[in-house]
Write a structure and sequence with these properties.
Blueprint: E1 21-23, E2 28-30, E3 33-34, H1 35-41, H2 44-53, H3 59-71, H4 77-85, H5 87-92, H6 97-111, H7 120-145, H8 163-172, H9 178-191, H10 198-207, H11 213-225, H12 232-247, H13 253-265, H14 284-299, H15 301-321, H16 328-337, H17 345-366
């Protein structure tokens, strides 16, 4: 029986080394580049290359990488057929978009010629293909949910559009405005990587057994689905919708405070707030909040009121509980303002985080050791079966 002192949730435990990302109270860094710098000056394609390949791309490398993504956007027929078959499950509620996305990625693994090859070269090829295809899965799935035919099934979109803009186009059939394209692009950058978070750690545990990239990504998607991780952006928007319904459209501060105080009294967990590392605030949240606020101001008064409600909720949480919002809180409001259906918020998170997951899977495979922690036994003392 071990006498090691357990750490609930592995909090504070250093589980390994990584060259990919540094998450600290003072900054968030991807391979040496700070998140505010990346959000302001890099495109998501550049950030994806940085994470997957390991360095900032030059002009030629970036163009070749973008061409590779465009060439790999289209989905195999088997995946499109599955998305059509999943429509009744989504309608009946036995599945949600994250479940369908998880299964679609698993099917991609069964079809990928490199699926059983864990070499660095094969892993990079698979990472690029997954990065290219996941937005297409999301777009085609949303079309099918809406009762429409998937857009551009033979090409996976419009080659003239950026990675982020093409995802919106596939979902809606409309070319996004430059402002909308920029907002979704930055949101993908903000969500791309975050060291040993729950889904990334899950992917590393899986691939540490020398399982394959598609299997590890499938497990990561399952981990990200939960409302204590990626699903928090959906839960945050659902909470705001509930507040709006309960208090009416005028954002009466007294009614907002009363709602929040009831939530505090009931010990309700308010999603989109707090972070295991960022005790003094998530670096990403104000970046996305500012972009979302600008989007709301162009979209109209109804959306500005949503942000004003959110800002009042943030104020109360900070003043009374000293808890800051994390990036999921402004994400919910921003995506809602952009007209993105709430159940697709976390799948879009996957479209970003696939780059971080793949980078970690490649890093784990390159310097592998099976991840096998120990547990403190708290069951009955030893006893005899026939005693």
């Amino acid at each position: 029986m071990t006498t090691a002192t357990p750490s609930k949730g592995l909090e504070g435990i250093v589980a390994g080394d990584t060259q990919i990302c540094s998450v600290a109270q003072g900054d968030l860094i991807y391979r040496g580049y700070e998140i505010h710098d990346l959000a302001a000056h890099a495109t998501f394609e550049e950030v994806a290359f940085l994470l997957l390949v390991g360095h900032k791309p030059d002009a030629g490398e970036l163009q070749f990488f973008k061409d590779e993504l465009i060439a790999n956007r289209a989905l195999p027929t088997q995946v499109i057929d599955f998305l059509r078959a999943a429509a009744p499950m989504l309608e009946e509620g036995t599945a949600v978009p994250m479940d369908v996305l998880r299964s679609a990625v698993s099917i991609l693994g069964n079809l990928d010629k490199d699926s059983q090859d864990n070499s660095a070269e094969a892993n990079l090829r698979k990472a690029k293909r997954l990065t290219a295809k996941i937005p297409t899965i999301i777009g085609h799935m949303q079309n099918i949910i809406d009762g429409k035919e998937p857009i551009a099934v033979h090409t996976g979109g419009d080659a003239k559009l950026s990675h982020a803009a093409n995802m919106l186009y596939l979902m809606t059939g409309e070319k996004p405005s430059p402002e909308a394209a920029k907002t979704i692009d930055v949101s993908l950058t903000l969500y791309a990587e975050h060291d040993y978070n729950a889904s990334t750690f899950a992917s590393r545990v899986i691939c540490a057994t020398l399982s394959d990239m598609h299997g590890a990504v499938t497990g990561a998607i399952a981990a990200l689905k939960g409302p204590l991780h990626g699903g928090a952006n959906e839960a945050a928007m659902e909470m705001l919708a509930e507040i709006r319904k309960d208090i009416g459209p005028e954002n009466d501060p007294a009614k907002i405070e009363a709602w929040m105080h009831r939530a505090f009294k009931d010990k309700r967990k308010l999603m989109g707030f707090g972070h295991r590392v960022y005790k003094n605030g998530d670096h990403r949240a104000p970046i996305l909040h500012a972009l979302g606020r600008k989007t709301a101001e162009k979209a109209g008064p109804e959306f500005v009121k949503l942000f004003e409600l959110g800002e009042k909720v943030q104020q109360i949480m900070l003043e009374e509980k000293n808890i800051h919002p994390n990036v999921d809180f402004p994400c919910g409001m921003t995506y809602f303002t952009m007209g993105i259906p709430v159940p697709q918020y976390t799948p879009i998170f996957v479209a970003a985080r696939i780059t971080g997951w793949a980078a970690h899977i490649m890093e784990q495979h390159a310097n592998n050791r099976l991840i096998r922690p120990i547990a403190t036994y708290t069951g009955p003392a030893q006893r005899k079966w026939n005693g």
